[in-house]
Amino acid sequence: MTRASVPSSAPVQLRLCPRPRRIRCLPASVRRRRGGVACSASAADADVVDLFDAAKLTVDKFVKSGMVVGLGSGPASALAVQYLGTRLRRGSLTGIVAVTSSVLSASEADMAGIRASSYQEGTKIDFAFADAEVIEEGTLAAVIGRRKIESGEPSFMLEKAMVKSADKLAFITGSDKYLTGVEGSIPVLVKSGNWIDTAEEIDDLFLGDAEVWRRPSFGTAGPLGGDHPLVTKEGHHVLDVIFTTPIPDLGQVAEKLEKIDGVVDHGIICSNQSFAVIASKGEVQVIEEKSSVIP
Prior knowledge:
It comes from Urochloa decumbens. GO terms for molecular function: ribose-5-phosphate isomerase activity. Helix content is 24%, strand content 27%. It is of the alpha/beta class. It has a 7-stranded mixed β-sheet. Strands 8-5-6-13 form a 4-stranded mixed β-sheet, covered by helices on one side. Strands 10-11-9-12 form a 4-stranded antiparallel β-sheet, covered by helices on one side. Helix 3 (103-111) links the parallel strand 2 (97-100) and strand 3. Helix 1 crosses helix 2 (75-90) and helix 2 (75-90) runs parallel beside helix 3 (103-111). The relative contact order is 0.15. The model is unreliable at 1-41 (pLDDT under 50).
């Protein structure tokens, strides 16, 4: 089973230019001429630089003083959190109330010097940003939850609840993940009791189009999850519904999954107030829901 990889965010030292930015997540070889960070960029780091530009634009375009802002998890979100912290220290943004969706986003906020609280059901959020592991072109439906989690770690349900409660939402990702005809894993949380019956029903529903595997906590993946299946903090199993043919409509897949008894949640997010911030070869596009033009 293929999983999305997450770039290392180990602290590094940067050679700063006159307007320094504390961007902990950028590798040492990444330098910028634009925006005051810079000097040179190697080809190997071009994608990281582009992702930083997308994260920066997300904060500059959507975050306003006095907002309640939801902080997502992942490489792009980490860069956006770090840049948000920079703007708060400079005083160009004030009165921000930050809400985190995971242990990872809480840790990033702390390192950026941002006071934040964990998301609670019913919290009103003005704007939220999050990584997307894939975005469906046109509808901007997104998939989260492919990232490996450890046994006992909270699932992606909290992040999904947070971003869906936001008045506006931006997914940040690279152009290689903005696709027509999404393939690969759709994570599905299922109740632990009779999970095999649930898995078989999902398998029958998408017969010929997808394989259903239970995610292991470690070791080699397999249909049954091996000897050490993953169990989330909430006590659920994670099924990876791995589509081997392009999905014509993520929204329809979400509707079908939600009708199956035993399914708790899934990694598909559909929102009427979403944007995609797409990093691509030295430029960033901001795409509105059900539109392919830059607003």
